[in-house]
Write a structure and sequence with these properties.
Length: 293
């Protein structure tokens, strides 16, 4: 009888401890969301640097073909200054690190340095949002401590994933809002992609006048104007395609972020927002490869 009671007690403990982990549904959705979010962060990191370099290149071309421009009247990197660009890179890096951390937490790989990833996430999020995170959010990140038995490691990772997803829901939404501003091409937008497009349009207008002037300019001047015109046309086309894909993906990120928090709270969800988000990000990744060539 004593052996039966002991067995029942052990089974009860195992059942209790297993319940503290993640369900299959939670793991699948976390992996899908984490992978997609790491990808959008990675693309954003690269693109903000590309936008800054593109603006400098187009302003250089403008300075070359427009005699009215002088070294004093044209700031080559305006408005994509280095300091402002670094903040945007930090925002994207935060999303990338968040996505990578989530996939590490629900994976069976125990070789990943979770504490290092967590600390990098904290540093970049604070830099991107321009404010210190609350003690609650810092506490959730700092609870990622591994090193006991493998069973306990998995439990700790599962518990950490749940807590981090819930307390990080708001910062992720804030980061998404920052990205949305920068990838909008609305008329009153002050974002980076709008500045990139506006720079391209200015260059195109000047280049068109030279290209359409016939024999008024030398072949060398015309060649420079044609190069500038093609550069501007590609930039304008790129802006429109990238904005459309990015805006859809960023809206998808916010919806998927809400679904993930819901799934972590009660393991139930009536939406396919995470699935749709993953598909949108894959489309963005594919298009970005095309636009990068």
């Amino acid at each position: 009888m004593r052996h039966v009671a002991k067995a029942v007690f052990c089974l009860s403990i195992i059942a209790f401890l297993s319940g503290c982990g993640l369900t299959g549904n939670q793991i699948v959705k976390t992996q899908s969301f984490g992978t997609a979010t790491a990808n959008i962060g990675r693309i954003g990191e690269e693109e903000f640097i590309n936008i800054r370099n593109g603006i400098i290149e187009m302003n250089t071309e403008l300075l070359s073909i427009d005699n009215s421009k002088t070294s004093n009247s044209l700031v080559l990197d305006k408005p994509a200054y280095a300091e402002d660009t670094s903040k945007r890179v930090a925002a994207c890096k935060s999303l990338k690190l968040y996505g990578e951390l989530l996939t590490q937490l629900v994976s069976k790989d125990r070789s990943a340095n979770l504490q290092k990833s967590a600390n990098a996430l904290l540093d970049n999020t604070g830099a991107a949002l321009g404010k210190e995170l609350s003690d609650e959010k810092k506490g959730a990140i700092n609870k990622i401590i591994v090193g006991l038995g493998s069973f306990w490691v998995d439990r700790k990772k599962a518990d950490a994933a749940k807590e981090i997803i819930l307390v990080y829901q708001q910062p992720v939404d804030e980061l998404a809002n920052l990205l949305r501003e920068d990838f909008s091409l609305e008329e009153n937008s002050l974002g980076y992609l709008k500045a990139y497009e506006s720079t391209a349009k200015r260059l195109k207008n000047v280049a068109m006048r030279l290209v359409n002037a016939g024999s008024k300019y030398t072949l060398l001047e015309r060649e420079r104007a044609v190069h500038a015109f093609v550069l501007s046309e590609k930039a304008i086309s790129r802006s429109n395609i990238l904005s459309s894909k990015a805006m859809t993906s960023i809206d998808g990120l916010k919806k998927a972020n809400t679904e993930l928090a819901t799934v972590m709270s009660n393991n139930q969800s009536s939406t396919d927002d995470i699935k749709n988000y993953a598909r949108q990000i894959q489309g963005l990744v594919n298009m970005y490869q095309v636009l990068s060539k």
